[in-house]
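Why does residue order matter? Because the sequence determines the fold. Keep that principle in mind as you read this record.
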Amino acid sequence: MISRFLTGLMLLVVSTGSILAQESGISFKSIELSEGLYMLEGQGGFAGGNLGLLTGSDGVILIDDALEPFSGLVIKAVEAHTRAPVDFVINTHVHADHIGGNVALHNTGATIVSHDNIRYRMLADDKARDALPEVTFSDSVTFHLNGHTAFVFHIPHAHTDGDAAIHFSDVNVIHSGDLLFNGIFPFIDLDSGGSVSGYIAGQEKILSMADADTKIISGHGPLASKADLQTAHDMLVDALARVKGLVDAGKSEDEILAENPLALYHDDWSWYFITTEKFTRTLYRSLTERE
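Structure:
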């Protein structure tokens, strides 16, 4: 199921409807990564995860589509780069801040593409028919459009159980989805099939595809490099080891929290959603429950 936080956030945002979208001051900043390929980043408030946009005469691909009330702003951001409608929307995972614009984009003619598990979870959550992915894959799918090769591949049991990343190998760009929260503690959704071990393995897979010049569209946070992803990976591996040492010593969850093994990361990595305490609890749970 979609995490309680994101469900609550979605309800909060939707409750203010289009008025919030118009008055929030939110907009989408565009960063050109290669000819016809962009990162769209919400600014002025939380609009959802970072988007990828591929434009050209062969067709338009949008990677993720933010929270539902900001669908109109997403469409306007796309229109700033192309007059053509979006042909394909690729959902990197099931959370509301990445699939909220599905209905609006579907209604403009876009085909929604995702991993099988995203459609399964959306059906279980009784999502509107127009929000559902129409094309799904189990392992990977490749788009050949506008002179680019977009390799979309599944990363099992990482952020969720339906994660996908997208590798534009010809221009050395990767959209990591939420396998990278750049510079902040990651959300690993254990209740939606995610796992810490899978998250680490997924990051390592992306690292193996990157080099010093790779541009990485993070799920959240600024445009990243391989070095940024390596830093996030190393933090997670070390944080897990710190908590594991205390679990192996027989410490309870409360005793581990009291020892604050992630204190050295607090100032730089803790944020309003995934605080140091919450991240410690996630690591403890992952070590004491079967993933």
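The mean pLDDT is 93.
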